[in-house]
Amino acid sequence: MEDAEELLAAVVAWARQDERITALVQTGSHGRGDRIDRYSDLDLEIITPRWRELFADQSWLDRFGAVLLNVSFEDEDEDRPWPAPLLVVFTGGRKIDVTIAGEERLTDMIEHGLDELYQRGFRVHWDRTGLAAKLPAPTGETPKPTVPDLDEFTTVTEEFFFEATQVPIYLNRGELWVAKFRDNTMKEYLLQMLEWYGATDPERPRYTWYIGHHMDEWLPDEHWRRVHETFGRFDADDARRALDATVDLFADVGAEVAARLGFPWRDDLVDSVRRLLAEYRSHR
């Protein structure tokens, strides 16, 4: 794997000599200076008024090493006129996430305060005009956990249980791939409910990162143990076992989140879904 410091040095050297680059800022684990391991990627922001030019011709990436993959997952963000980050993997396996942004990226935070990403920590590696030096100092605080409103909570609950009613049908049909596909959707809703569980902890609301990162740290030990039971093999019997475990965990966590937020909880819905699962199991 490419050496992270050598790779960073190559990017900094390029930014210094390329007159188009206003600033080079590092965020993520290296920018914060914590949770760094041998696999940690580099999160870099190239600040330039000529961001369109740099995005259109990305041959400058070859200066840093042999590129294996370079992808960008475009998303809709009305507040961000520049493209989604480039996700670049070099042949040795090191990944860098590169945001190419206009100078407004920094001027907005100079005027209105740091966003959540920068607030957690950043390092300025190049500042041609002194613009980055005007950024406020980061506090290092983690983002405040977000909690759902009733509509969002209800939507996640109902869509989870909808998928739960469909998985056993496909298992009975022998459609294992389809059953797994729907189970993956259930896992997305389960993750959301687990995140809300962490965020609504009455003693210490937890920051739950994203897509399940560090879950063993922000979930209680018993819940983390139960998460292990929710994944089954590509086998109908084990998939049914995992489905039951997934439904049970979601129901327990969902009821607790509802109680904490003062939302109604549908015990009748849970009972009806469990009845259907038992009935479908008898059809085998």
TrEMBL record:
It comes from the Bacteria. GO terms for molecular function: nucleotidyltransferase activity. It holds the Pfam family Adenyl_transf. The keyword Transport does not apply. Keywords: Nucleotidyltransferase, Transferase. Gene3D superfamilies: Beta Polymerase, domain 2, Nucleotidyltransferases domain 2. This is Aminoglycoside 6-adenylyltransferase.
